[in-house]
Design brief:
alpha+beta, Alpha-Beta Plaits, globular, single chain, two-stranded antiparallel ribbon, about 100 residues
Amino acid sequence: MAIRIYVGNLPYTFREQDVAQLFAPYGEVREVRVIVDRDTRQSKGFAFVDLNSESASRRAIADLDGVQAGDRTLTVSEARPQTERRDRREERDRGDYRERSNYR
């Protein structure tokens, strides 16, 4: 099974195709997801990449960690599993939000 790769400290101008080009020499790029702000659609400076094999992913991590991209030094590592997030709308609807805040 392939490893999901975390790519941090990306230039804010990088888009999916830029990240895909960076990883293309290591194998087939199955997915690139640049994380953007939901309101402004501006890149947050990090992305996740899936390559076609575990060995390709490990080679890419080893070779690309610390590489300069634009004026920034990339951080490339194995992505940690996503933690489950609570739905804040549910808390608000139940009244938990008011109880946890300093609302008086």
